[in-house]
Every structure is written in structure tokens, then in C-alpha cells.
């Protein structure tokens, strides 16, 4: 019995390692935003097989990019408390296994998107993986602007969903991109300020690195959350969504901006954590509202 | 010290993940081929 539970614990830990390697939670968020893009881009009856192909292709490339990112950063991850227990720095996985898995998943995801959806969708997916790995990842140790650059691959998934459903880009797709781009800034600023010492130890240059008091970080968080509030209202104004969306997005944005303002006034870890949790709540609620109130 | 056994088990699990990914990819492509073109854009 004891041997059985040990075996089960080991299996759970192995599955946990795979989930960490492919950044399961982040990849799931990528899927949600892709799904929203697909729904918003759909006109007429839903093509469920196309949806399945789009989501699975995106999942493969997101998981692949995460594995390649961890393969690339394994030595830096070992220096940070937050990441030193990941399977590669902890030595529970061969580095080359992660590399081969990452290449396989990314390539097959992009290929599946090209076959199941269209070439533009595959190109956008390749751009997401490429900019995440070859621009954002090395930039993390060169310039503090990496957060802004990193927000680009983070904002592309809804466009991937949109182009898979619609076949091309339009103003609505760019709106989704901008909303996701702006949302990431206060979200990552809050994380980066909370873990600023850890990031410095890992050799990362963050916007928060020299901001011990949090004044610059919180000021930027306010600017981005206000810009997000303004842009998030546009789908209600261009008849992409009904007026209910407009008022809902206004309330959500006002609450989110309020958390950023509170952070600028209090400037402690708890206020930064509240802003982080507000960002986690804000996005799924806004996206759900967007889907529910869309005007087809 | 991490035993090599853990790394071997992880390698087997990664291989299983690749097989799963390939199977599902193939299934989606086959279903799309069987259904034929439907895109209207």
C-alpha cells in the first residue's frame, strides 16, 4: 500500500513537471484568448472542427514555445527562487528532451494551423513563437523594455483565433490585440515589482529593477490601465458589442484602474498583489462579457 | 541528488505526450479532409 502511494506521488510529480515545462496555466490562458478571438471573428454557424484545429494547433505551439523558453533559460532559472524548482534547473529532466519536445510541438502546431485554418493564421502563430523566443527572451537581460516587447506575443493569440475564423485581419482583430497588449502591462508590472529582487538575482532587467519605492511602476500601471479602460470601450462604440458591454467594460476598467491608483498611493507588496489579482479577474470577466454581448 | 530514474520516467512521459499530440493532429486533419472544403471567406 505504501509502495503504491509512493508510486502515485511520483507519477503526479512527473505530470506536474510536464505541466510546468509547457507552462500549462499560461498556455491555457492563450487558448482562452484564442477562443474569444475565434468566437468574435465567426460569422454564421460555428465551425466546430475548425475551432478544434485552431485551438489544438495553438495549444501545441504555445506549449512548444514554453518548453523552448525554459530550455533556453535553464541556467538563469536556477538562480531565481521562483523558478529554481522547474524540472530543468532542478535536474529532473534532460535539457535535450525539453529542446526536442519544444521544437516538435511548436512546428506541429504551426503546421496544423496552416492545414486546418489558413496560412495567415500559421504565420501569426510563427510570429508569436518567434518573437517570444528570439526577441523577448534574450531582451530580458539586455533592456527593461522587454516587458513591452513581451506583451506583443502575449497579445497575438486572439488575432490567431480571429484570422482562423474570418480568414483575414480587420479593425476588430487589432482592437482585441490592443486590449490584450495593454492588459499585460499592469499585470506584469505588478509581478515584476513584487519579485524585483528575484529578477535582479536572475540577471533580468525589468522596468521595476531600480524602483524600490514603486513610484515609477505604479505610475506606469495607472497610465496603462487608463489606456486599457479607454480602448476596452471601443468594441461597444463600433457596434462589435451591445451597449451592455460598454457599461460592463467601463465598470471593470474603473475597478482595475482603481487598484492601480491604490498601488500608487500605498506602494507596498499587498497593494501590488491586489493589482495582480485584479488583473487576473479583469481579463476573463471582460472576455466573457465580450463573447456574451457580441453583435454577430 | 536527483536519481536518473526520474529523468528516464520524464522522458517516457514526454514521448507519450508527443504520440498523443501526433494522434490528435492526424485525427483533426483526417476529419477535415473527409469533410471537404467549407470555408466561406
Unreliable segments of chain B (pLDDT under 50, ≥5 consecutive)? none
Number of strand elements of chain B: 0
How many whole angstroms does the radius of gyration of chain A measure? 20 Å
Q: Please name the two chains that share the biggest interface, counting residues whose Cβ lies under 8 Å from a Cβ on the partner chain.
A: A-B, 33 and 23 residues
Strand content of chain A: under 5%
Q: Summarize the helix and strand pattern of chain B as letters.
A: H
How far apart the termini of chain B lie comes to: 57 Å
Tell me, rounded to a whole number, the average pLDDT of chain B: 84
Radius of gyration of chain B: 18 Å
Query: Per DSSP, what share of the residues of chain B sits in E-state strands of 2 or more residues?
Result: under 5%
Report, as a whole number of angstroms, the end-to-end distance of chain A: 57 Å
Portion of residues in helices of chain A? over 70%
Sketch the major β-sheet of chain B.
none
Shape of chain B: rod-shaped
Assign the structural class of chain B, choosing from mainly alpha, mainly beta, alpha/beta, alpha+beta, or little secondary structure. Answer: mainly alpha
Oligomer: heterodimer
Structural class of chain A: mainly alpha
Amino acid at each position: 500500500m505504501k509502495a503504491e502511494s509512493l508510486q502515485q506521488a511520483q507519477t503526479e510529480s512527473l505530470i506536474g513537471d510536464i505541466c510546468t515545462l509547457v507552462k500549462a496555466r499560461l498556455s491555457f490562458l492563450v487558448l482562452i484568448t484564442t477562443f474569444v478571438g475565434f468566437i468574435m471573428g465567426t460569422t454564421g454557424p460555428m465551425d466546430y472542427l475548425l475551432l478544434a484545429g485552431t485551438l489544438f494547433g495553438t495549444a501545441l505551439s504555445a506549449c512548444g514555445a514554453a518548453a523552448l523558453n525554459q530550455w533556453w533559460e535553464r541556467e538563469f532559472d536556477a538562480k531565481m527562487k521562483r523558478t529554481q524548482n522547474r524540472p530543468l534547473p532542478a535536474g529532473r529532466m534532460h535539457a535535450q528532451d525539453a529542446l526536442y519536445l519544444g521544437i516538435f510541438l511548436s512546428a506541429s502546431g504551426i503546421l496544423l494551423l496552416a492545414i486546418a485554418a489558413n496560412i495567415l493564421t500559421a504565420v501569426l502563430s510563427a510570429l508569436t513563437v518567434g518573437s517570444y523566443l528570439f526577441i523577448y527572451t534574450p531582451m530580458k537581460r539586455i533592456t527593461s523594455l522587454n516587458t513591452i516587447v513581451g506583451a506583443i506575443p502575449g497579445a497575438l493569440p486572439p488575432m490567431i483565433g480571429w484570422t482562423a475564423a474570418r480568414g483575414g485581419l480587420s479593425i476588430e482583430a487589432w482592437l482585441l490585440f490592443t486590449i490584450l497588449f495593454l492588459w499585460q502591462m499592469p499585470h506584469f508590472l505588478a509581478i515584476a515589482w513584487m519579485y524585483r529582487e528575484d529578477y535582479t538575482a536572475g540577471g533580468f532587467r525589468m522596468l521595476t529593477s531600480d524602483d524600490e519605492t514603486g513610484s515609477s511602476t505604479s505610475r506606469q500601471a495607472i497610465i496603462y490601465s487608463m489606456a486599457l479602460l479607454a480602448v476596452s470601450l471601443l468594441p461597444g462604440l463600433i457596434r462589435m458589442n451591445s451597449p451592455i458591454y460598454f457599461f460592463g467594460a467601463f465598470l471593470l476598467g474603473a475597478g482595475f484602474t482603481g487598484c492601480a491608483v491604490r498601488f500608487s498611493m500605498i506602494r507596498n507588496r499587498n497593494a501590488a498583489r491586489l493589482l495582480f489579482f485584479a488583473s487576473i479577474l479583469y481579463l476573463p470577466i471582460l472576455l466573457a462579457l465580450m463573447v456574451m454581448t457580441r453583435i454577430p | 541528488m536527483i536519481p536518473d530514474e526520474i529523468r528516464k520516467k520524464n522522458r517516457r512521459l514526454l514521448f507519450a505526450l508527443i504520440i498523443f499530440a501526433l494522434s490528435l493532429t492526424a485525427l483533426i486533419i483526417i476529419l477535415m479532409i473527409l469533410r471537404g472544403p467549407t470555408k466561406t471567406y
